[in-house]
Amino acid sequence: MVRSTLFDKTDGAHWGVFWHQDLAIAVKERHQVEGFHAWTRKAGVQCVQPPVEMMSRILAIRLHLDDCFAANGALKVLLGSHRSDALTSNRIEEISSSANKVVCEVPAGGATLISPLLLHASSPMSNPGHRRVIHLEFTAQELPQPLEWRYRMPCE
User: Fold this and answer.
1) Measured distance CA(96)–CA(100) in Å, rounded
2) How many CB atoms within 10 Å of residue 37?
3) What is the pLDDT at residue 95?
4) Longest dimension (CA), the chain
5) Which positions ≥6 away from 115 have C-beta within 8 Å?
6) pLDDT, tens digit, for every residue of 115-131?
7) Fewer C-beta neighbours within 10 Å, C or N terminus of the chain?
């Protein structure tokens, strides 16, 4: 496991998320390594975009602590979009206007598995309550030295 995040949509924080791919990983420190670009800090954590091939070998597992339906901002995905490279915002707009959209409705206790490259979004909640999801990212690959995963949990 190389990352974990808790998403919690509530009555006071019921944001929507535009169509996007997850293209960045969290690392311990910034080091110039070929193929790694678009360095940024998110919530104080150093992040970078690795080569798309590396992102294609990450699996995200979303564990649903609450019912996750369209009315409370369930994940929406565009089928087959994970087969693309990193997409420009113009290309994302083209694809999202014509692609087959699926709302991933999942009951509490269920799970969704996705590639970070899959175009995904969510709508703001229209029903009050919680929509909590634990988002875990897994990969078997190591980063090129001297880069290190920020949150890597080794399997032993």
Assistant:
1) 8
2) 11
3) 86
4) 47
5) 55, 56, 58, 59, 60, 82
6) 999 999 998 888 777 88
7) C
Share of residues in the chain with pLDDT > 90 (%) = 67
Domains parsed from the chain with CATH numbers = 3-138 (2.60.120.620)
User: What are the two backbone dihedrals, phi and then psi, of residue 82, each rounded to the nearest 5 degrees?
Assistant: -70, -10
Encoded tokens for 36? 């790694």
How far apart, in whole angstroms, are the C-alpha atoms of residue 7 and residue 146?
31
